[in-house]
Each structure stands twice: as structure tokens, then as C-alpha cells.
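hiii, so i know i said id send this last week but things got crazy w the move. better late than never?? heres the sequnce for the chain we talked about at the cafe, plus the structure i predicted for it. fair warning i was half asleep when i ran it
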Amino acid sequence: MVTNKILLLILVTACTISVICNAKGSGENGGLVANFYGQNCSRAEEIVQTVIKRHVSDDPSLPAKLLRLYFHDCVVRGCDASVLLSSTENFQSEQESGANRRLGGFEAIDDIKAELEKECQGIVSCADILALATRDAVSLQYGRPLWEVPTGRRDGTISSALEASRNIPTAFSSFNVIKDIFRRKGLSIDDLVALSGAHTIGVGRCSLFSHRLYNFTGKGDQDPSINPSYADFLRTKCGPNDGRTTVEMDPESSRSFDNHYYEILKDNKGLFTSDATLLTNKKASKVASKMLDSETFFDEFAKSMLKMGAIEVLTGTQGQIRKKCNSIN
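okay and structure toks below
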């Protein structure tokens, strides 16, 4: 009886410390656990935070870059840092796909990896670094983590530009295309709408939406779903063949991570077709309306990020712990 009580106390204490009480290998969260590096690299998460704070100070656009980088990683082969691999003679990596040509944030990840290798060599995966760095960069303005990041991911050894092209939605994607991509990864319409809120920060190139202003159906017309005054504003920024200029995705809130995206979306000021298309589906539009409440958005975004971060993760002895994030050991 005494032994059972002691065992119960140990289990309760372990769950309290780890926050997410999942045994490694269980289905929920893909077998990931909180504070995975507590024993063999106790300062791992502290180092990530420190380096990210320095990088965001130098580049305020980094949170948006990392959110995009992380999403583009997870929806291809799962959250295995395959997007960080550079091409070699043997394969054309995910970075070579059209959707990934302008990804950013690699320098910050490489810097974090270098610092962690000094602290505890061969312990912390690039996949976990990307997951933690993204959370910390976005959360920095609030001084507290906005979502949980259980860890224990390992790094993949395969990166394919073709797979990236097939699995990453584009700015031109219709609702059904995006929904199917999310469904294949175990993400729901609720997740789709919540994660689209990431567009409250960052910029988009004119070439990704100018067709909505100048030639929507090939007849020199404007997309009828876009707010006319917003279209007029965008034309002052972008010419019909402008491939260089960038425009804020959320003009009044492009550096602040908040729920303002849903306000402009409901006012038909979503920048991309992939934004505007959320309003073409009854359920998605209803979910977007709920996100107008700030507390609801932060709660739902946190749940969806936790869910996305567990997509097809490698754990245990799967994959490897890369010495450098851009190359296989």
C-alpha cells in the first residue's frame, strides 16, 4: 500500500513538472513531452529565448518569417526540420520549390544551433529549435509564451522540392485546396482559420495578389470580393507587373501579433485569394467571426499550433540529431 502511494506521488509530481502528461510514444502530441531536455541540456530553452530576443531586436520581421518557415516545414513531411536542409547533388530540397523560394529566418536557427552545440553537443534537434524559436519570437511582445511547445522531435533526412510543391498552399489557393491539404495533415477547418491568423504579421509581394486588382478573370477586371477602397489603396502600392514591392498583410497591425486579421478579413480586405476564400465557406466564415474576440483567437491559435507541431513528428530513435541544420550528418 505504501509503495502504491509513493508511485502515485511520483506520477503526479512528474505530470505537474511536465505540464503535458504524456508518456513518450503515446498518440497525443505525437509522443512529445514538455521539458524534454531538462536532464541532458537543462538550459536549452533558455538559450533559444536569449538568441531569439537578440535576433528579433535586429530584425522585427523575424516572427512572421519563422511562423511561415515552421508552417512550411510541418505541412510537408511533418515537423522534422526538412525545410532547413540545403540541396545537394543527390536531392533538390524543399527550399527549391516555388512556395519556399523566399523563406527567411534560417540565420536565426543556425545561430541558435551553434550556441546549443557549444552547451550540449548533439542533443537538441533542429526540429525542436524551429518549434521553440517560432513560439518565442511571436511571444516576445507579450513577455510570456503564447502556446505550449512540447519537445522531443528528431530531424528528418529527406527533403523534396516536389513534395513541398504538392503540400504547401499558395496565395492563389481556393478554400477546397487548402482544406484538403490541412485534412491530409489531420488539421480541421477550425485549425485552418485559426492558423490563417498568422497573416496578422508580415508582408506579401505584389505579384501574389496583383491579379485581383488588374486581371482577375483574364479580362482586365478586379476581384469582386475585394473591398473597393482597399483595392484602390493597393493599386497605389502595386503596378500590374510589380514583382518586387511588398505590402503589409495587415496594414494597421503588421508588427503586432493579434486578432486584427479577422477584422480586415470580415471587411473584405484579406490580401490574398487564400485569405478571401475563407469567407466562401459557411463554417470557416463562422469560425472567423468567433475570432473577432481576442481571447478566443489566442486560445484557438494556441491549440492549433500545439496540434500542428505534432504532425508526423519523429521521436525516439527515428531520424537523427543533425550537427548542422542545413545538412544531414
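btw The CA atoms of residues 89 and 112 lie 27 Å apart. thought thatd interest u
miss u guys!!
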